Amino acid sequence: MKDLSILIPTYNDECLELVSALQQQAVALGINYEIIVADDGSTLQNVLQTNQQINALADCRMIARNVNVGRAAIRNFLVQQAQYEWVLFIDGDMTMHRDDYLRSYLAAEGEVVCGGVVIKGGVKGNLRSMYEARHEQEHTAVRRQQHPYQDFHTANFLIHRTTMTTHLFDERFRHYGYEDVLLGKRLEQDGIPIQHIDNPLSFEVYETNEAFVSKTEEGLRTLHQFREELRGYSRLLDFVERHRALTILVKCWHRIAGKWERHQLTGNAPNLRIFSLYRLGYFLQL
Question: Which residues pair with 196 in a beta bridge?
Fold first, then answer.
C-alpha cells in the first residue's frame, strides 16, 4: 500500500468537509497518511475559522499563511511539508462524492496519475456553470488520455514525491492559470508518462459572473506572458496561429464591442458564444 501525503492548497474555500471525508477513507484503508492544508492568505475570516477545525482531526493540519504567494509557490511549499513517498494534490474547492476515491489511487500504476473532475450542481444564469457543463465531456479519462500532457491539471492528481521534488511548479506563475500546463510540458520533455484514470472529484462551487470573467482575464494575461513557453500546449494559442486573418477581424471587433460583450457576460443571461469571442478578443489586444 502507498504511504500518502494529501496536500490541499486553498484560498477562501472551506475544505473541512473534504478533509474529513479523505481522513475517513485513509483510516479505513489502514495506510500511513497525512493531510496538510495550506491557506494562501485567505481574506474571509469565516473560512479561516472553519478550516482551523482541521487541526483537531488526527494526522491532519492546516497551515495559515498571512501572505498570498500564488498558486505555484503554495504548492511547492506543501511539497516541502510532505513526508510520505506519494503526494496527492487536491484543490480546496473540490468535493468528495465517491467512497473508493483513495482506494482507486492506491491501485493505480504510474509516476503521475490524474483522476479528473465531474461537474455538478449547475446554476441557471451562471457563466462558470454554463461553461463547465459545455466542456464536461472533455474531462473523461478517455478524452484526457488522448492528450495526456496538454490535459494535465492540478485539481486532482497523484505523483511520486521524488518526481514532484524534481519537477516543482514554476514560481514565476504568481497569478491565475497555466502553472499546471507548464508542468505537464516539462514532464513530457523528461519522458515521464501521465496516466489518466476515472477517479474524479466533483466541482460544485461557482463564482459570480463578474468574478469568473475577471479570473478568465487574469488567466489570459498569464497565457500571454508565457506564450512562447506554452506554445503547443494551449488550444487558444494554436487557434491564433492557425487563423491569422480571422484574428485581425476579432481584434478590431473587440476594440469596438469588448465593453458591451463584458457587460453582457457579467449580467444575468450570459452567452457562451459571446464568451468565446470575448476571450479571443481580450487575448489579442494584450
Answer: 114
Cβ partners under 8 Å of residue 48, min gap 6 = 39, 42, 64
Q: How far is it, in rounded angstroms, from Cα 244 to Cα 151?
A: 25
CA distance 205 to 139: 17
Query: What integer pLDDT is reported at residue 270 of this predicted model?
Result: 97
Tell the residue number behind the cell numbers 505523483, with chain if given: 159
Model pTM?
0.93
Reported residue count of the chain is 286
Please give the Cα distance from 89 to 102 (Å, whole number).
12
**pLDDT tens-digit series, residues 183-195:** 999 999 999 999 9
Cβ-proximal residues to 180 (8 Å cutoff; 6+ apart), any chain: 152, 153, 154, 169
Burial pattern 107-146, b for ≥16 Cβ within 10 A else e, equals ebeebbbbbbbbbeeeeeebbbbbbbeeeeeebeeeebee
Tens-digit pLDDT profile for residues 83-110: 999 999 999 999 998 999 999 999 999 9
